[in-house]
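Progress report, Aim 2. The chain analyzed during this reporting quarter is listed below.
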Amino acid sequence: MPESFHEQLRIDSRFLKSDRRLDTELVDKLILQLNRIYPQILTDKEASRFRDLDVPTCIRLAELLNHLQEKGEEACREFYRALHLHVEDVYFSLPTRLRLRESGEPVVPITSPKHRYVMNDHSKSGLVNHYSKQVSGSSSALGLAAMGLSRKVRDVLIWYTEDGK
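Predicted structure tokens for the chain:
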């Protein structure tokens, strides 16, 4: 049975604390990812504490890793997802990932959590454009939505449905 994300983070923490690639900017991206997308894992108050530039980055990162381990399995899994998203080269250099690769086991992507999360109240997601069309009398629909967390659109969602599915 594979190790839990909690156990993996315990193993990888030493490596993460010593890796110079995790500079202030990248640590802030990880903190913001956890705070904005999963505010139940990292609240605004906690994120502010971990983003305090008066505290050296290595200490802030160590405290963040300890905090996530205290929060449990779900928080650790979301940290790995954020790390994979923002710092892929560090993610694939982790001792637990290297051990998986050396053992010949496939390194599977981190699956989405089973629960849906509500976006933080401070994020500004917006629907820019939506298009829906009936095609030749069928009940097919094509939609397009441009979404962003700031003034600039960063993501586009395109979907197609048939018969109300």
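The longest strand covers residues 141-147. The chain has seven helices and two strands. These observations will guide the mutagenesis work planned for the next reporting period.
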